## 1
Amino acid sequence: MTTPVIQTEGLTKYYGRSRGIIEVSLQVEQGEIFGFLGPNGAGKTTTIRLLLDLIRPTRGHVRLLGLNPQRDGVAVRQRVGYLPGELALYPDLTGQQVLEYAARLRKNVSQDEIARLAARLEADLRRPIRTLSHGNRQKIGIIMAMMHRPELLILDEPTTGLDPLVQQVLYELLEEVRREGRTVFFSSHILPEVERLCDRVGILREGRLVAVETVSGLKGVAVRRIDLVLDGPVDPQPFRAVPGVREVTAAGSTLHIAVQGSMDPLIKAAAQHTVLNIVTYEPNLEEAFLAFYRGDGR
Ligand SMILES: Nc1ncnc2c1ncn2[C@@H]1O[C@H](COP(=O)(O)OP(=O)(O)O)[C@@H](O)[C@H]1O
Ligand SMILES: [Mg+2]
């Protein structure tokens, strides 16, 4: 057994009397992309700040790369890359200047790596930070987190504000990190991106880790909504008997359907009709995992 790259034990943080996170025990293994999923306010940022010793726990322990971040902070910072949720960069410096400054602090950064990442992300390094859009600033933050090729990348909602093409580039970069045997821990409140990218997912709700699942396990419990637009009204009853279908309501020639797990049986049932359109909805986290949260998910 190799040492987990991230290990927390009973990690708990109260801000005064208000809950940050409660009893989070979690292990992330080398070479995986681990998604840390939860709605706003669930405690994702709190957990990440505790991992990096930016704040101190009320109770519990953290190990990163086998090190204690409270004691071995310098070693941890050398080997870990971090993108904060709210990035603060010197507004009057250009991207290039910010990155040079950060690279000098680190010492182990190659200019080629900065250039490679900037090219991939199409980051404009010549303009002052204050003139950049949120998404373009985020690119600078991503380069800063990755430029020293860290063993562990910790990203707090990295895709926020990125346009979809750049999101795809980021996903590719993270997959490359994994291919090299390095590890990624990233938080998100967006289910599809976590499903696309991650090996395993931890789901945080109201400060508690309610599930740690493989992505295929997650897909088996997630509830999704789809609308089938048919060429005329149909009886919803047969659809209610389709495996995985949890709910069907008919409105004119449209069926609104909630389905858990695989869509395949539903699609095959739909194929017996004339389907004019299928509308799928980005699953709402709360809804997708309601069964999980109630504790009767399987
Ligand atoms: N500095 C703080 N002071 C007081 N409460 C905080 C502070 N930071 C976060 N919280 C609270 O802790 C909870 C978790 O927040 P956070 O970790 O930011 O969640 P997330 O990143 O999942 O949106 C929220 O209820 C939030 O209001
Ligand atoms: Mg957050």
## 2
Amino acid sequence: MAKDRLTEVLERYEAVIGLEIHTELTSLNSKMFCGCPVEFGGEPNTRVCPVCLGMPGALPVPNEAAVEATVLAGLAVNCDIALWSQFHRKQYFYPDMPKDYQISQYDLPFCSGGYLDVEVEGDAVCERVDRSGDDEYTTRIGVTRIHLEEDTGKMVHVGGSEGRIAGAEKSLVDFNRAGTPLMELVTEPDIRTPEEARRFAQKLRLIIVTLGVSDCSMEEGSMRVDGNVSVRLRGQTELGTKSEIKNMNSFKALHDALAFEIVRQADMLDAGEQVVQETRHWDVGAKRTSSLRSKEEAHDYRYFPEPDMVPFAFTEQWVQSIADRLPELPDAMRERFMATWDLQKYDATVLTSDLAMAEFYEAAIAQAGAGRAKTVANVMINDLSAHLNAAGITMDESAVKPAMVAELVGLVDDGAISGKQAKAVFSEMVETGEMPSAIVEARGMKQVSDTGAIEAVVDAVLAANPDEVASYKEGKTSLVGWFVGQVMREMRGQGNPQVVNQVLKDKLGG
Ligand SMILES: [Zn+2]
């Protein structure tokens, strides 16, 4: 998908995108309507009971912690919390759902009418935005609602060769996931580009992880994003026919699938064809969407109030007690990092884009001192991030600890080692998990800043190279770099570069 093709299409067409984001509340101990544990993986059909298997006569009991988590999420994205709400039955047949209906919410969801402000790099393609910087803009994406429901089981399709009849495929069903508390957030169709969609999903993920209610793993399916997208000619007010895209299991897939779909629909309209309302599947390998089924309408589900549970009546005081539990959210944390540590917006954004990163930073500053906030940020944003990316590991899996970064920054600041030596120490620290001071000691890497010692080496180098000294004095001052190199070689790289430079210039009269 060439990016310039999308840009070209978006000059003539406006894309209208809304997202539906399902988040499994993986941090809870039990399922939505029974006491079975919530865990990823495990032997199939070992975390089940009559309730989540949909046995006749089994009665659901709502998970209070799941209701609280949903209200907490609603408050975090500026929603109104309904004081009166209810579960409904959503009827449809699929083998991964043994009751033949899903307990969900219909017209009385817990949360509605919220929004998230999303910062996006580049230029906006519509007017409805604030410029928040030279190279980015902020757009407000409405949150229509957040409701709570139960997840389905999982179908496992087994290849033909393993079937009883050669060439036939068989499908197995695992109900371990059935009944897992699932929070569904629906946005307003306020999103205009694939990048805005990606930024929204990333920001929402960070917020939900911060709330501590889900791990939001797109790979493991605990966060699943579906997109509704349509296009219309710029200036047209009527909405185009939309398609719904499923199976986007990474932020990149979300972006690429929406970009593909916008171009596909625009091409159809350009050719005088009509877009069909349907559900489409994103094929990561082929990098294209393909038709899955025609889209159901809400009335196909024959929603009706769940007769086994009474409606929820919340009080303002109860909602306030949930609001009191809201942790510091990512935007507030970024503002605090900028104000407290005097960081640039970019640095503060990177450091607060991941909770583990933010905690690491604060722990390192606590040991290094506030005066080294900027240098600690540099080591983390440059060296540490590069190391994590290259190794493909998370902060928690790395051998590098806050105390090590704090000590390393201190050694450079105090002139004990050079910046170049610090890079070498960092590489070894990553491998061994040893403290920088121990590495410096063991490798004899101490930087020599003692002027007397450096002067002795400089004198020897100048005496050994009279021709170069003469050239320098005749005006070829660029030779200073060559002299520095000679001195550093004699000192096996341990001379303090600033002191070496200064001594050389003094001696050469430069
Ligand atoms: Zn169960």
## 3
Amino acid sequence: MEALLLAWFDTNGRGLPWRGTRDPYAILVSEVMAQQTQVERVVPRWQRWLERWPTIEALAHASAAEVIAEWQGLGYNRRALNLHRAAQHVAAHGWPDDLTELPGVGRYTADAVACFAFGRDVLPVDVNVRRIGERTGATFSSAAAQALMDLGATVCLARIPRCDICPLAGACPSRGRRYEPLRKQGAFEGSFRQRRSLALRAVIAGEEPGDHEAVAALARDGLVLVSESGVSLP
Ligand code: SF4
């Protein structure tokens, strides 16, 4: 099955810009950005980020305030702080053998950096890769990692897989099945997440955020500092 998948990937793979590098820093940035943000939105932001901070040392020397401000629009701002802390750790101590020691780096992200940057023989298993494994019953090697991610993102979709164009259809026992809708993420509009986002934007713009509950939550996460003189970026 893997050979069929790789042949499909040769002509149908997504030409994502971070696939042209083996720089672990650039790949870490792409993976952290893509954790909870659509890939299409990540691409221009990743390019801009790498132009601003081309190396992990450059990012380590940036201020937390600059990093938080640059992250705006990607959502889940704690990722920015963790990325900054990870950069400081690597700049001071080098890349750890166990990448999950880095702030904000879980099993999947660690395996993705290990595979795509360091060439280790480990298959990063995200939701797409897991789904294809469960549906096909096949096992895949680390060489198929990017192909699996692309198949999961464009063909073997969560609810209504496009089995009619799938390179694995001939050997897939789940061919033609439909699936129940997944639990949807709560609406952003009107959510506390939105209030936090608006409060943080106000602080970045040098305005008074007003929403004390949201500011308190941001302060707990280290995204803002609250003092007698007001609310500021760290
Ligand atoms: S045949 Fe359908 S269910 Fe099986 S891997 Fe392809 S898209 Fe997914």
